[in-house]
Structures are given as C-alpha cells and as structure tokens.
Queue: 3 jobs
Job 1
Amino acid sequence: MQLNNVTFHVRGGILDGVVDTLNSTCSCWEFDIDKLPCVHAIAVVQKGNFNLYSLASPYYTKEYYTLAYEDTIYPMSSQSQWNIPDKVTAWIVKPCEVKERKAEMLEISFSGRE
C-alpha cells in the first residue's frame, strides 16, 4: 500500500516492510544494513515506476569498485613468516548458522486498498 509519494507498506514474506524509496530504507533493516534493495523494496520496484539500481548504494557500482583497488595492493609474505599473536591463534571461529528461507509472494497495492 502506498503511504505517500516515497513510502510503501509491503505485506508478505517473513514480515511486513515499510519501504522509504527516498532514503533507501526498510523496516526489515536488511535494506539499511546491506545497502542493497531487500525483497520489500524489490516488490515496490516491480509494481511502481522505480529504477532498482538507483536504490542500491553506489558502493556496488563499477566506479567505486575500481576506486577501491586504485592503489597498489602488496602481496603477503610467506605464511611461515607471519607473526600472529598467541591470543589470536587461540580464537575458535565457528561459521554462522544459516536458516533456509522459502520464497514467498509479496503483496503490494498502489490503490490505497488492501
């Protein structure tokens, strides 16, 4: 449902989302954290007259990628020459738990009616 010119309420998925296309944010926070459109923002783009790429952060553009690697990156020395503190080698790092999510249809209405 369109709340105003730039804000939309999207129902569906794991939770509903309120997307602000002007500030590139969503109440699900995925859009805010990743700086890439979440499923709610994509639903708004599909139903409205929005450019999906304009909602993504410029950090994902070719220009920014090129600038990130503009300076020289020096190779690491041989692993046998690394000086790693004992407290760091003692760390146990486990992978994150990943929950599988099912794709669900999202519902958005621009008419103001649900």
Job 2
Amino acid sequence: MSGKVRSRSAANADSVPGSVSCDERILRDCHNMYTQPDSGLMTIAQSLGVTLLPPRKKITVMLMGNHSAGKSSFINWYIEEHIQRTGVAIETQGFTFVTSGRKRESLTGNATLHLYPHFKPLQEFKGVSEYLGTEICTSRQKRFSLVTFVDTPGLVDGDMKYPFDVDQAILWLGDLSDLILVFFDPMGQALCKRTLNIVEMLNEKHGDRLRFYLSKADEAGGESDRQRVMMQIVQELCKRPGLNKCGFDMPTIYVPNTNKPSRCVNQIEEVCRTIEKTINQTVQNTLNSLEKDCELISEAITDTLDNDRQCSVDNRRARCKGCALGLLGFTIPLLMLAALVLGSLSKEMLDLVLGADGTEALSIYLAPVVRAFESVSGEMQLYICGGLVLLSFILLILSRFSRTKPTLSGKQKRQLQEKLEYVQEVVKSKKKELYEEYLRQSVGDQDMN
C-alpha cells in the first residue's frame, strides 16, 4: 500500500470518455479495483494468502453446432461487419475469438493466449494452439463492446478428422463461457451425433447456460417443413435423459436479407435479448462478488490482527515464565553460596553483621534445614549439592528456550489497518455507487431513496 490518498484516487478513477455504456463502465471499474498494481484487491489478497479471481470486462458467448449452421453468419450480423468467413463448406476449422477493440486486427494463437490469459490451459490440448485466432474489430453495434464471441469448428460425423480433440476443447471452453448458443440448421445435419453428444455433456454441468436455436429457418421450406424439422430435432434431443426436460424452447432464427424476404417468423432478436440478459446478470454477479471478496479480505485482515494480538499475549506469558525459571535457577546457587559463607563465619562475626536479634532469628529459621542436612551422610550431602546445582542448570536452560511466536511490527500493523480501512471505506463505497448507477438505468430516483 502506498498510502490511502493514492488508493482512494485509484478506486475512483475517471471514466473513459466517449460512448462507454453504463454496464461497460461498471465492469471496467470493478476490474480495475481488482488489478491496480499497488492497491488492487488482488495485491491485498495475495499479501494475506487469500486467492481471488478478477472479474472479466466482457462476457464470453460460445457458439457451437454442426457445420454451416450459421454461427459465423450470426456473428457477422450481430456486429454488422463481415469478420468471419461463411459458406456451406467447413470455413471455421479452429476456435476464433471475436471481440471489439480500438482497431481492426487479427491475432494468431500465441497473441490470443496473451490477450486472454485465462484461456492458456487450452495449450494442454495437443494441436489447439495452431488453430486459435482472434479477430478484433471496431464495431460497437448492439452490446458487442461487452461480448467476446467464441466461434467453434463446425461439427460433423463420419470420417472427418480434426487436428485436435475438438470435443474436449469445446467442453473445456464451456466451463469458461457465460452463455452457450447451440445452432441446429434444418438442412440435414441438425441430428449430428457429435453435436448432440457434446450438448448432452455440457448440459450435465452448465444446463442453465445452454440455449437452442433452429438457424437458417428461412431455408427450411414451408411452415409444415419447419415444424417437421423441429419435431425431429426435439425428438432426438428428448431421447437423451439429460436433455429431456420441461420447458424446452427452440426459437427459429435466420439472418435477415432485404433481397430475400421470407414469411418465416424470425426470432433472432430473442438471441440479442438473451445476450443482454446475460450481460445484466454478469454485472450483478460482479458487483455481488466484489462485496463478498471485500468481506473475505476484511475477515482475513481482522483474523491476522487478532492472531497477532493473541501471539503478543502468549509471548508475554512465555517471557514471564522464562524470567521466573531464570530467577529460580539463579536463586538456588546463590542460596547455597550464602549458606556456605554464613556457615564459615563465627558467631561473633554474625552478631557484628546481623546483630544479636538477626543472628537468633536466622538460627531459628535455618535450624530445621541444618538438622536435616546433618542427619545424612557426607556422601549424600554431596549428592544433594550436586542435584541442586544440576536443577539450577536445568532451570536456566529452560528459561533460555521459552519459545515466543513471531509477531507483526508496528509498521505492518499500520499497513494492515490501512488496507482494512481502504476496503471497508473506499471499495465498498465505490461498489455501492456502482450498484446505484446500475439500478438507475431501470428504476426511478424516487425508488432509490
């Protein structure tokens, strides 16, 4: 921590000028509060031994389906730019990330993994790195500034050989995706077993993220033909226990073409609303996670300070115990030395030093000890003296080895207290402001009071 003034300014960074949406600004500010080099929550948590995951600035939407199902065409339509190649052939042979940026750019595998470090485990799938790419475009249509599309290879059955384990790669990407769009086309490939198998496995862990669509619905012929195709797809899906659930929905969509009007119902805007809903949910989840992480850090700091106080108390007890043992260890030989000196002095010398009354009192108190000591043999007296000397050494050794626990320095405790105040006062206040800003998009000011 470089001081609360610097930390507060970091948490209240100015918004990026321009046409930045409220949701985009909230996600960016939350991400910055985690990743600030000096005062970010990641840095604070790491110093406390707490593991946090920084929120992402965008949601990840994965599109999957059989080849020529219209995945790339949908991306081009959504961003209103021709980024992905389309066609009946298998155009997308690898994984392509499509995201918005400052300028049009194409990135290869290594650059893609550098841009998205949380996707680096993809390198563990043999052959995937050579088939990774990123397309960056300047489009800000719809909610594209908050979305990263993952265009997956078209899936086919039969002898088609992929240069990597496409099934496992898609399943792994499904774990990191916020939304998974499954496109079925009506041209005979919708019942691709590979697609259905992957969908079934994804549904086991991420059923709430899956959305099914009948793409290219305008090419299915008449209404009766579309209904027949949909019935076939639904029947095939319902044969699989995991996908046989109540409330199954599969809207019909196609990319609008003014030169080719169609009377088919187009629910492609439903996909946009689904993406919008996922963005809103992600914003809420990010703000909720921010509060939970603040509580986690505050609890860790409080526990650290409490443990330090307890260690200080234990250390004081250990030092007191060590002093008592050391004092006792020195007292025994001193008493033996005093007894030896007093025993060698004559009565007249004792009367001169202690006075008659002192000499008489000393003789009364020491008489039992003298009689007990003289009642044993000379050899036993030596053993007793040796035992007392040994006991003295043992007590002195024990006093030296009284263990104390390490404690925090005054500077470390001040830094921890500053971090606690920063999290409680600055980050939580910023989180409250962001939540109110998010809610004002939907409700009136009178409902916020």
Job 3
Amino acid sequence: MLLPQLIEPILHHPSGIYAGAEFCNSNEQQPLGILPHQIRGSISQFLQMNLVGHASNTCTACSSVVVSEYRNRGLDFLIDAINHPTYLENITGLTDLINSANSFGLG
C-alpha cells in the first residue's frame, strides 16, 4: 500500500499539494521524510526507486492547458474528456506530437 506513504507527506508538507519533489540527499528534510513524485519497483531485482517527474506541456493530466480548461469549464470539461477519447490529446498538442513522430516512419 504505497498510497498512504505518498499522500501523508504531502498532507503535512508546508506547501501542501504544491510541494516539490525531494530526494534523500535534499537539504530540506520534512518530518515524514522525503517526498517522491512516484515510487517504482522491480520484483525480479527487489529494487525500489523514488522518481521525480517534471511537468510537460503535452501532459494530459497536469499541463497548464488542462488545468486552465478545468478551472474555466469545470464539469463541461470533464464531460468532454470522458465522451471524446482524443479530447485531452488534442487540446494539449499531444496528437500533433504523435503525428509528427509518426511521420518519420520509425515504427
């Protein structure tokens, strides 16, 4: 159960949900330890990695376009995202990025 371990430090961090990721060698230590963006693991190697992700302007979850649309349109935005499978990809430019990559014929 990793969710409690990821959410608890965020809830107690002075910056809350706006807290940046922290590493084990970070100078700023929080009472509940480091604050990774995600935890990934490998069962075959018994390995656990704390990862940091950086926002992308084509991210369908956290890009400024998506956040702005949600704030401005609320439920209508969610309904469009649910009813139109490529809606988020289209508004973030991810569709254009994928088409551009496909034009190289690498795949």
